[in-house]
């Protein structure tokens, strides 16, 4: 576990990749929420 934490947060490239992963998850969940709320019947 300490190895993964050091790999993710120890260097800027790992931190940048974690930021990219979390941003992608956020955008995908926002698009899914938008799709579900638009396809709901009135």
From TrEMBL:
Segments crossing the lipid bilayer: 12-36
Keywords linked to the UniProt accession: Membrane, Transmembrane, Transmembrane helix
InterPro entries named among the record's database cross-references: DUF3149
Domain of life, per lineage: Bacteria
Pfam families recorded: DUF3149 (PF11346)
Protein name, as recorded: DUF3149 domain-containing protein
């Amino acid at each position: 576990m300490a190895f993964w934490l050091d790999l993710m947060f120890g260097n800027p490239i790992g931190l940048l990749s974690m930021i990219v992963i979390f941003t992608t998850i956020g955008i995908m969940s926002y698009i899914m929420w938008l799709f579900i709320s638009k396809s709901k019947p009135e």
